[in-house]
Amino acid sequence: MPALVTDEQNLLLKSWLGPFRVVKDYSWPLQDTCVLHVITPAGGSFVVKASTTSHHIRREIGALQGGLPGLHGKAPVLRHGSVGAGVLVTEFLPGSSVERSPAEHDPDTYRQAGALLAKLHRPAGTSGDYARKIARQTELLIRSARGLLGGDTLARAAKELARLELRPVQLVTTHGDYQPRNWLDDQGRIKVIDFGRADARPWMHDLVRLTHQQFVGQPALEEAFYSGFGKRLQRSEASVWQLENLNQALGTVVWAHKIGDAAFERSGVQRVERTLAGL
User: Which CATH number characterizes residue 22's domain?
Assistant: First the structure.
């Protein structure tokens, strides 16, 4: 087993699955989570995720443990999980990554992805504190971005944040990282994976990454997505939409700099400028 899998986790996996063999390691070097495709002699095919430090394991177990209504065959099914041990097992979901494939540029991919997201989003109550919490986080990010962004840009970001109305917001069960690298293409059928960032948030949180990546200069992809999703941003939601964009853009700059990813940091700077320009 890979070194990231502890003895405790390995014992749990054997108690759940019996003997198994690793056929592919999907672990991402920048994360402290081990992601493995394993098979068993009985023909079982599973994905194992293990970490001793990442909160993503807890979030994914929480997102999957009750099942995902309307997404049968198009999202992972949780078979085993231990929050305490930091390990989970899902049934293997066939398909290849949409990212960097022809499907990433196909409007039908986005129509299907929009329809999947509409089913994934389930009501999760109203929060009077969410916007204030994200605004506080964004204030800290502005401070952390000193030296990474120009003084004028930081001043504009602070001014933009100060003008936003921090109202109560409706929450839904969001994915948290909804983009082509977390979509699978199974012979034209789109599926969604990796619920490690799932949480209750406003619905538009899941649209920020796409807006700054795949939708830029690609109106056909954006239109296809929203046609599948079935709704668009309303004027009353403009402040929380701007808040989500500002928070995620600044977060990208700070996090990318921390891990030494210069290209991703530059993309974060572009997101900040795009957000301040009104998208």
Answer: 3.30.200.20
Look up the domain containing 177 and give its range.
Answer: 102-276
Q: Is the pTM of this model over 0.85?
A: yes
Does some domain include residue 1? no
Please indicate, yes or no, if residue 2 is contained in any of the structural domains.
Answer: no
In-domain check, residue 30: yes
CATH number of the CATH domain containing 194: 3.90.1200.10
109: exposed, middle or buried (Cβ count in 10 Å: 0-12, 13-18, 19+) = buried
What dihedral do alpha carbons 279, 252, 105, 192 form, nearest 10°? -120
Phi/psi for 166 (5° steps) reads: -100, 80
Reference 233, options 273, 180, 278; nearest CA is: 278
At 45 the three-state DSSP class reads strand
Domain count, the chain: 2
Tell me the C-alpha distance between 19 and 163, whole Å. Answer: 58
pLDDT per position as a tens digit, 180-233: 999 999 999 999 999 999 999 999 999 999 999 999 999 999 999 999 999 999
Percentage helix, strand, coil for the chain under 3-state DSSP, each rounded to 5? 45, 20, 35
Task: Determine the length of the chain.
Answer: 279
Instruction: Verify that 163 and 270 share a domain, yes or no.
Output: yes
pLDDT, one tens digit per residue, over 14-34 is 999 999 999 999 997 667 889
pLDDT of residue 29: 66
